[in-house]
Design brief:
alpha/beta, Rossmann fold, Domain 2, N(10)-formyltetrahydrofolate synthetase, Formyltetrahydrofolate synthetase, domain 3, 3 domains, twelve-stranded mixed beta sheet, 20 helices
Length: about 550
């Protein structure tokens, strides 16, 4: 009988976080303790490390996710543990879990089995309070906007054209569209508003794409909050409140240091979603990790069509990071679902469906190759995978010259990915002269950049822009925002914008219904299909299985 993730986490022999920091060469003066096993790293440390040579960046991505599970975070963590076992100095960089998915569908997001981050309960709940600080900064700004209008509206802001929304870190569909200021005049100006989930807030994106308090303050000032009556953009800097917002985030911007169950160091910082935001951990954590280790192993949310594309087209540009190799995680179970098998029948051997579903993996490989990057496929093994299914996938890899390595990190921890770690070292050492390239040039038009992503990454035949989207593109061009990268907001469940189309859809177009300027973050968001920025809870939320006993011991996180 296998132990649950929470049971394994509780049995882990954690080292005091000072010891993890010491192993990385961090002085005691540069860590701020949050209990015995969590710490924040000072911004002074970031300055001290500037003259050190960068390590190599390894990005972990995956095929299109399914309810069968892929194990991207688990593979990332196990891979970090594996590098330690082959005597390579590595550090893992992850995003912070959002309470929305934790209480909704996932139940936890710290890896799994013997490839997970601890303390698991802390990480999945309030951790060091970073997302709460971002939520507070976001809602402080929202309150200041409405107060400005109530107190005389010196900036001539049109209450019907305020684009900045409130947020909270729980899935709550009831808050997607709300009316605020109802009742008497003392309650403020009545208008329509709405909530995003906190991890879709532009403040989260700014937070993750800044490397100092000074830079974060500058980017916060550039956030567009709405428009005047004569359709001129209004920014946070016009309200003169960027200083207050930075003050609320001054501790949150310091990266968090924790460890895996095998005591490998992990930086967990920032948490933007990859289907509605840019889906990568903070630049400051990644760059700090690159200075402290020979290999930085990081992940980007969902499949290569979302997180990886945004990591490679947005984060690397802003951060000046050069990726060295990519790991694409796949499972037999998920590929069978892409081949047409229902979730309840996944335990049954079905080589035919697996072979059909491989087309999804193939498309993600093509995407990674379009960036000119070396890669390896990590086949995350599940208990019910048959030898025939595993052999069929491995044979396909050999026949098509795709490197595939078995991953068994959930069951064996780092030992289950030593083969992948060795393969990555070999790939990186043998590809020193590769020419990493972005998908598009920033000087291309907004339409061309979106079309390039949709055709190259999703396999679409083209893009249809709604009348509203066309109007917004004209406005963005007039405002000088057309040279920014694009952050696509698309369903994670399909390469297309229709979540019901599994596998590798053909003969489809992507519909761009709306664009939003994230000028502070430094990109434009293109919303496709029916994509929402505030998710809802499932019929049976994970929260219903969670509890805590009289001694404070958690149950139900998995």
């Amino acid at each position: 009988m296998y132990k649950s993730d929470l049971e394994i986490a509780k049995e882990a022999k954690m080292l005091p976080i000072q010891k993890i920091a010491e192993n990385l060469g961090i002085d005691e003066e540069d860590i701020e303790l949050y209990g015995k096993y969590k710490a924040k790293l000072s911004l002074n440390l970031f300055e001290k490390l500037q003259n050190k040579e960068d390590g190599k960046t390894i990005l972990v991505t995956a095929i299109t996710p399914t309810p069968a599970g892929e194990g991207k975070s688990t593979t990332t963590v196990g891979l970090g543990e594996a590098f330690a076992l082959i005597n390579k100095k590595a550090i893992i960089a992850l995003r912070e879990p959002s309470l929305g998915p934790v209480m909704g569908v996932k139940g936890g997001a710290a890896g799994g089995g013997y490839a997970q981050v601890v303390p698991m309960e802390d990480l999945n709940l309030h951790f060091t309070g970073d997302i709460h600080a971002i939520t507070t900064a976001n809602n402080t700004l929202a309150a200041l906007i409405d107060n400005h209008i109530y107190q005389g509206n010196e900036l001539n802001i049109d209450p019907k054209n305020i684009t900045f929304k409130r947020c909270m870190d729980i899935n709550d569909r009831s808050l997607r569209q709300v009316i605020i200021g109802a009742g008497s005049r003392v309650n403020g100006v009545m208008r329509e508003d709405g909530f995003n989930i906190s991890v879709a807030s532009e403040i989260m994106a700014v937070f993750c794409l800044s490397t100092s308090l000074k830079e974060m303050k500058r980017k916060l000032a550039e956030i567009v909050i709405g428009y005047t009556f004569d359709k001129k953009p209004v920014k946070v800097g016009d309200l003169k409140v960027e200083g207050a917002l930075t003050l609320l985030l001054k501790d949150a911007i310091k990266p968090n240091l924790v460890q895996t169950v095998e005591n490998t160091p992990v930086l967990v910082h920032g948490g933007p979603f990859a289907n509605i935001a840019h889906g990568c951990n903070s630049i400051i954590a990644s760059k700090m990790g690159l200075k402290m280790a020979d290999y930085l192993i990081t992940e980007a949310g969902f499949g290569a069509d979302l997180g990886a594309e945004k990591f490679l087209d947005i984060k690397t540009r802003i951060a000046g990071i050069k990726p060295h190799a990519v790991v694409i995680v796949a499972t037999v179970r998920a590929l069978k679902m892409h081949g047409g098998v229902n979730k309840q029948n996944l335990k049954e051997e079905n080589v035919e469906a697996l072979v059909k579903g491989i087309e999804n993996l193939e498309k993600h490989i093509e995407t990674v190759k379009s960036f000119n990057l070396p890669y390896v496929v990590a086949l995350n093994k599940f208990v019910n995978d048959s030898e025939a299914e595993l052999n069929a996938l491995i044979s396909w890899g050999k026949e098509n010259d795709h490197p595939i390595e078995m991953s068994e990190v959930w069951e064996f921890g780092g030992k289950g990915a030593v083969n992948i770690a060795n393969k990555l070292v070999e790939l990186i050492d043998n590809n020193t002269d590769y020419k990493f390239k972005h998908l598009y040039d920033l000087n291309e038009t907004i339409e061309n950049k979106i079309e390039t992503i949709c055709k190259t990454v999703y396999g679409a035949d083209g893009v249809e822009f709604t009348a509203n989207a066309k109007k917004q593109i004209a406005e963005f061009n007039a405002n000088g925002w057309d040279k920014l990268p694009i952050c696509m907001a698309k369903t994670q469940n399909s390469l297309s914008d229709d979540p019901k189309k599994f596998g590798r859809p053909k003969g489809f177009k992507i519909t761009v219904r709306e664009l939003r300027p994230s000028i502070g973050a430094g990109f434009l968001v293109a919303l496709t299909g029916t994509m929402l920025t505030m998710p809802g809870l499932p019929k049976v939320p994970s929260a219903m299985a969670m509890d805590v006993d009289e001694y404070g011991v958690a149950y139900g996180l998995f």
